[in-house]
Amino acid sequence: MPLAFAPEGSLVRIIDIMAGRGLTRRLIEMGLVPGSVIKVVKTMGPGPIVIEVKGTRLALGHGVSMKILVELVEGRI
After folding, report:
1. Is the pLDDT of residue 75 over 70?
2. Residue 77 has pLDDT above 80, yes or no
3. Alpha helix (H) ranges present in the chain?
4. Whether 7 contacts 77, CB under 8 Å
5. What's the rounded Cα separation, in Å, for the pair 44 and 51?
6. d(C-alpha 59, C-alpha 18), whole Å
């Protein structure tokens, strides 16, 4: 499922990034690599999503979060 649809408070594992080379490289530089586990801190409907990666919070736009495919690691925490 796209990261944009992940429930608030959940832990998800990145499966794939379906973006162009430039955006994919930028996301990898921010620590968003396939296999890594991230926490969904806050979702804002069709707006941005706040995630936590290795102790750092990042805000991603809706369009970007639709290009990151994830799977749930566990339910809400």
Report:
1. no
2. no
3. 21-29, 62-66
4. no
5. 12
6. 18
12-51 pLDDT, tens digit per residue, is: 999 999 999 999 999 999 999 999 999 999 998 889 999 9
Token look-up 């749930």 returns 72
Task: Give the tokens for residue 31.
Answer: 């620590």
- Dist CA 27 CA 46 (whole Å): 20
Tens-place pLDDT, residues 43-57: 988 899 999 999 999
Of 62, 72, 53, nearest to 15 by C-alpha is: 72
Q: Shortest CA distance to 12 belongs to which of 49, 45, 48?
A: 49
What residue ranges define each of the domains in the chain, with the CATH number in brackets? 3-74 (2.30.30.90)
Q: Which of 72, 16, 1, 66 is nearest to 40 (CA)?
A: 72
